[in-house]
Amino acid sequence: MKVQIVNKSKHTLPCYETLASAGMDIRAHIEQPIILKPLERVVVKTGLFIALPVGYEAQVRPRSGLAAKFGIGVLNSPGTIDADYRGEIGVILVNLSKDDFTINDGDRIAQMVVAKHERVEWLKVEVLDETSRGSGGFGSTGK
């Protein structure tokens, strides 16, 4: 699948790190380091602009290494980039640790997964079909 991209940063294009990777790392495109304090959030620009085909979205997700080692996540995970969005991709990072975290230009800050999606046409009914789970919600299927 070919996707148009404009890269206004000096960094490499997002790419898959291994043959089996689902996500591509995306990098910070910032003029000076950002100090992200505990429980603070910030939108970090990437310098990337994309044009996805209709029927696809790009999902912006946390990097597991940043989450596990430093408590850094993507606040609206996964963030969705719609096919008709043409603005710069920004990543909402949040610091869930007790320590300051520094974001530098070029740091890998998130990963992006391009996924196909369907559009829904609602079919209004009076009753839904029964299942073995029924209306069991959070934690109803066990530990």
Report on this model:
With about 140 residues, the protein is mainly beta. It has a single domain, classed as Deoxyuridine triphosphatase (dUTPase) (Deoxyuridine 5'-Triphosphate Nucleotidohydrolase, Chain A, Distorted Sandwich). It is built from one helix and eleven strands; from the N terminus they run E-E-E-E-E-E-H-E-E-E-E-E. The strands form four sheets. The protein has a four-stranded antiparallel β-sheet with strand order 2-11-6-8, with no helix packed on it. Strands 4-9-7 form a three-stranded antiparallel β-sheet. The chain is globular, with a radius of gyration of 19 Å. The chain starts with a strand and ends in a 27-residue tail after the last strand. The mean pLDDT is about 95.
Provide a brief overview of the structure:
5% of the residues lie in helices and 35% in strands.
Write a concise keyword list for the protein shown above.
11 strands; single chain; mainly beta; globular; Deoxyuridine 5'-Triphosphate Nucleotidohydrolase, Chain A; 143 residues; four-stranded antiparallel beta sheet; 1 helix
List the strand order in the largest sheet: 2-11-6-8
Q: What is the CATH homologous superfamily assignment? A: Deoxyuridine triphosphatase (dUTPase)
Number of strands: 11
Give me the CATH fold name: Deoxyuridine 5'-Triphosphate Nucleotidohydrolase, Chain A
Low-confidence stretches: none
Q: Whole-Å distance between the termini?
A: 39 Å
Helix content: under 10%
Number of domains: 1
Largest sheet: 4 strands, antiparallel
What is the averaged pLDDT score?
A: 95
User: Do you know the CATH architecture?
Assistant: Distorted Sandwich
Task: Give the amount of beta strand, in percent.
Answer: 25-35%
Compute the number of helices.
1
CATH class: Mainly Beta
Radius of gyration: 19 Å
Oligomer: single chain
Gross morphology: globular
Structural class: mainly beta
Q: Topology as H/E string?
A: EEEEEEHEEEEE
